[in-house]
Amino acid sequence: RIKASGLKLQLCTNETQATRADFVRKLRNLGFDVSVAEVTAPAPAACHLLRERGLRPHLLVHHDLVPEFAEIDKTNPNCVVLGDAAENFTYANLNEAFRLLIGMEKPVLISLGQGRYYKETDGLKLDVGAYMKALEYACDVQAEVVGKPAKSFFESALAELGVPAEQAVMIGDDIVSDVGGAQRCGMRALQVRTGKFRSVHSLPQPAPILPHPASAPPSLLHTL
């Protein structure tokens, strides 16, 4: 409906349990007509940053995301890249990342997002942000966030869309990563009640609340 109305669409996701290609494949299987170019995700942005700064990462990420880093030099790591590793978030793996960071003269921790939790069919689950904070505290380092709610992430999505922030609207269920991040970037935002929406959360700025994404008619988006 959004595309048919003439509006541009870019999916901003903190998905770090799958490559963009696999993510798009899942969406297409659900009937959504999207392409890889219409998805802004943390892993490709992190790869760009790693190449730009000559960083060689130790990866603590989901095994399905590893192919995104296939062309990145990972020998003799000089940084740690943290994603939603799910079952890979074991004590041994976290401690290995800790030891690498604490042994660096200038530790570099790159986090693919900083979400607190997310919702799956069996309930809420801890997200990468919780583990990021643990490593920050243990190593006395501040992580560089690549993904929502980082301003640079939204700016990258806007660049791919080819529109300024004031002409873009973010629709999401995460009050911090989606709504708050977009608003701090100068965008407008719509909060939806699906996913992990909780009414106890307060909005950074007043934002319309919708039952679900499909209830945002293109006519409304045109007038925002």
From TrEMBL:
Enzyme class per UniProt: hydrolase
Entry's localization field: Cytoplasm; Nucleus
Entries under InterPro entries matching the protein: HAD-like_sf (IPR036412), HAD-SF_hydro_IIA (IPR006357), HAD_sf (IPR023214), LHPP/HDHD2 (IPR006355)
The entry's keywords: Cytoplasm, Hydrolase, Magnesium, Metal-binding, Nucleus
Tagged with keyword Nucleus: yes
UniProt EC number: 3.6.1.1
SUPFAM superfamilies membership: HAD-like (SSF56784)
Cellular component GO terms held in the UniProt record: cytosol; nucleus
Coiled-coil ranges per UniProt: none
Keyword Nucleotidyltransferase: no
Catalytic activity entry: diphosphate + H2O = 2 phosphate + H(+)
GO molecular function: inorganic diphosphate phosphatase activity; metal ion binding; phosphatase activity
Cofactor: Mg(2+)
Stated family: Belongs to the HAD-like hydrolase superfamily.
Alphabetical list of PANTHER family matching this protein: 4-NITROPHENYLPHOSPHATASE-RELATED (PTHR19288), PHOSPHOLYSINE PHOSPHOHISTIDINE INORGANIC PYROPHOSPHATE PHOSPHATASE (PTHR19288:SF44)
NCBIfam families (UniProt xref): HAD-SF-IIA-hyp3
Function: Phosphatase that hydrolyzes imidodiphosphate, 3-phosphohistidine and 6-phospholysine. Has broad substrate specificity and can also hydrolyze inorganic diphosphate, but with lower efficiency.
Protein name: Phospholysine phosphohistidine inorganic pyrophosphate phosphatase
Name of the gene this protein is made from: Lhpp
